[in-house]
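pasting input
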Amino acid sequence: MENDHGEDVTSFLKEICDYLITRIREQIHWAIDKNASISNLVQIILKAKRIHLYGMGRSGLMAKAFAMRLVHLGLDVVVLDETITYPLSREDVLILISGSGMTSSVVRLAQIAKKIGAHLVAITSNENSALAKISDTKIILPVKKDNLKGKYAPMGTLFEDSLLIFFDTLIAYLMDILGETEASMRKRHASLE
Amino acid sequence: MENDHGEDVTSFLKEICDYLITRIREQIHWAIDKNASISNLVQIILKAKRIHLYGMGRSGLMAKAFAMRLVHLGLDVVVLDETITYPLSREDVLILISGSGMTSSVVRLAQIAKKIGAHLVAITSNENSALAKISDTKIILPVKKDNLKGKYAPMGTLFEDSLLIFFDTLIAYLMDILGETEASMRKRHASLE
Amino acid sequence: MENDHGEDVTSFLKEICDYLITRIREQIHWAIDKNASISNLVQIILKAKRIHLYGMGRSGLMAKAFAMRLVHLGLDVVVLDETITYPLSREDVLILISGSGMTSSVVRLAQIAKKIGAHLVAITSNENSALAKISDTKIILPVKKDNLKGKYAPMGTLFEDSLLIFFDTLIAYLMDILGETEASMRKRHASLE
Amino acid sequence: MENDHGEDVTSFLKEICDYLITRIREQIHWAIDKNASISNLVQIILKAKRIHLYGMGRSGLMAKAFAMRLVHLGLDVVVLDETITYPLSREDVLILISGSGMTSSVVRLAQIAKKIGAHLVAITSNENSALAKISDTKIILPVKKDNLKGKYAPMGTLFEDSLLIFFDTLIAYLMDILGETEASMRKRHASLE
């Protein structure tokens, strides 16, 4: 163990937490100010026959957390790397998530989806990536590098954390639009847990 | 569609985001002020032969996001519902996550782990739950109910969101203690993505 | 390495393979001769609103392989430990798989399902198990112990292998009943692979 | 329902079962007679620092069933699409499984693995596929088309079924080489089920 924080562990932990929180808020506000694509995304989700989602690694886990809530809202959802999947159709939306926008498996899926003619949504921090360029709708969650990022938020941490809070913001907005409540959503929750 | 937010979608989305962010920060600060069990948790993680993790639903997804970073830190980690698992031993720690602390499959695992004699960590929002009571170390992430919770943060949302940011706070702290850097962690990242 | 099979590796491997094959065939024929419950199972699958499936470990993997083909047949299927699940309803069937019939998580699910009133199917090698007793329909795939089992088919191997071939036998039968063909099934295959 | 098999359901089911069984046995015997690559595979598995496995869809499920038993044998195993993965190293083996040998995600992994310098094993039914050509060791499980295949064994069924029995044959052979018994393997079985 290299460091000894003695009694100021508490303040060190709060400093890390507040760094993450501040950056997440900043990134999501930035994305919300690009209002047009979010309203767009909501409309696309609501009119899609089926919502297909995919991301790799931690982004994929956040996609799954979003998928669960979309099911609670009564929507028809598929996560691509699970057992139960369905062919992508022209009436569907495919939401692909990649911080770098260059994950090769994700870009390959984007190319297949374009051929099929499904609506393609990219969620990425890289506006100039292959994924962003090929997509019909782009949600950019930008991640600024600063002196603390490598120390407090290694690799994709800020993208992934923002992703979860952004998705949960969208869920509350979708609840409002659809007139759903916590009680109505709970009825669609798995009964076998 | 029941509501029409017209041009103030932007401010509505920011209000939801800020509600989530504020509550997450509050819950994690509360947990950090209970400093003793967090320092404890960090020591237990560092001296465990192997770290076993489990949670159901969205809590389980956050456990997996944490597990990935623990692997990047060079630790030996198992997620219980995956293909590759190992028997729990007395030298191991089992971290169980449940907002309610009453998920039956989680409580059952806690009971088995106690018999084996492994160190049992509970992460829950319910200090008086069966899970909290049986565990050797408890991290409480309390979730207060207020007027907006059901509207902006249905079901376990505040617990799960706090969980991710709390875990990522711990990761930065563990990096510091272990002398790890983003570069050293990246070398342990899956090379086949 | 304890043994050296020199040039008769070939015959040793064939001996193992033939042992497995012979025992699998025997177990499935035995189950087929108990015709009534299989015809029953097929009718229950066909009239269920939704088919829920669950097994642990290797049994769970075979359940997933079966689930994929049921989707290709156009049926509505849920695997319980995946992201996308739905509440179990009285119009649904829950198929639970456990060689011993005593896996505690499986028995617990059986009890919940009975309260809900869904049709409960057990697939097990243990006719007298808690799981078999509580279930509405039982498919018994018996596993006889003999001198070679521990050497050629450790733990649940014979149950799990028989399970896959039994499921694939059912799939061909369901294709016939439903008038499905390889071509019609292929259209329901995930297009994004 | 198009057909009515009346009282001969039993003989129809047995006919399907025996068709599958006969073809599986034939395919595995064919692969065993190509003895050299199987002995090779066993040696490569035993000397690898870590065994990485991957397949898509039902092939991936069979890979996971194999992975579980390799863990029971005390080997160090990774399944690529799970939470806990490790970078592929030159001392590792990557076993890729694809019936067609042309699944694009699998071929892409093969190319990355070759650059890293890990030993690459292909298990496929297509000797002339991109996957077979790039691999250091090839196990061919050939699938002949006949009049009944489309009716009794749609899509990859015969490949996937043979895969499971082939893997379980290998496990019994590895037990023998390593001097492992059912009892010694059971000790490495997950204790939390």
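fyi Chain C touches chain A at residues 52, 64, 67-68, 71, 77-80, 82-88, 94, 109, 112-113, 116, 187-192 (CB under 8 Å).
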